[in-house]
Amino acid sequence: MITIKSPREIELMEKAGEIVGNTHNYLKEYIKPGITTKELDRLAEEFILNSGATPSFKNLYGFPGCICISINEEVVHGIPGNRKLENGDIVTLDIGACYKGYHGDSAWTYAVGQINEEKAKLMELTEEALFKGLSVIKDGARVGDIGAAIEEFAHKNHLGVVKELTGHGIGCEVHEDPDVPNYGKKGTGPILKAGMTIAVEPMLNLGTANVFMLDDDWTIITGDNLPSAHYEHTVLVTNDGYTILTKR
Questions:
Q1: Mean pLDDT of all residues in 76-98
Q2: pLDDT surpasses 90 at 76
């Protein structure tokens, strides 16, 4: 069921989103060669708890980490562990925080040290694809408009669009209706209404759109082992546009 949030619910989601944005800003200073993904996860959990919230993803569907940390060809749901970041990697931190029962959710891809031109361009274009998708949001638009805008931009730039994973509604639960695919047809899908809160999150690959899951039953990687980037904001639908709740 798609829900319209009350002013009080929106206020709580703004706080949850602020904590998520602040967590990203805090962690990016630690994204350097040599740090382990487990250490980044620990820092994230401490920061979120000290901000008066709890990590949304910890034990969600059994996920063992606090945040998802995905490196290079890992698209999403990378499990924090002993792996160290290396110069030239790109790493996505997908962070969720729950404040008084309401969630914020945002992913961002970061460069580790000096990265090559291909990875830098992938990051730049995927971030731009996010804002292409956000640009069509307003009361009366349709979910398909978002996916169509992202897909058109990605294909124009010869990037693979992951179809097995989507954005989503968000509120009391991390994942609510509606699904928000990164592909689609304009004028189709559920109608957006002012007061809805959704997470838009293009996942674009340098090569094939095909992905598969590793044996850990969590980590999704690209089918050709080429890099993937992932950018996400939680937003509020308004009468004439949108408001980003996970501002950085």
A1: 98
A2: yes
- What is the C-alpha separation between 6 and 11, in angstroms, rounded? 9
Exposed / middle / buried, residue 152 (Cβ in 10 Å: 0-12, 13-18, 19+):
middle
Q: Cβ distance 170 to 182 under 8 Å?
A: no
For residue 127, what are the CA distances in angstroms to 142, 228, 230? 21, 12, 8
Structure tokens at 167: 């954005």
- Please measure the distance between the N-terminal and C-terminal CA atoms of the chain and give it in whole angstroms: 29
Round the average pLDDT of the chain to a whole number and report it: 98
pLDDT tens profile 121-149:
999 999 999 999 999 999 999 999 999 99
Nearest to residue 150, comparing CAs of 186, 120, 104? 186
Q: Nearest to residue 208, comparing CAs of 73, 37, 44, 25?
A: 73
Other CB atoms within 10 A of residue 200 CB: 28
Among 35, 10, 21, which Cα is nearest to 197's? 10
The residue among 158, 171, 163, 141 whose CA lies nearest residue 235 is: 171
Amino acid in position 147: G
Alpha helices by DSSP H, 51-195? 117-134, 143-156
Model confidence, pTM: 0.97
Which tokens in the block code for residue 174? 């991390």
> Is the torsion defined by CA of 110, 20, 128, 60 positive or negative?
positive
Amino acid occupying residue 211: V
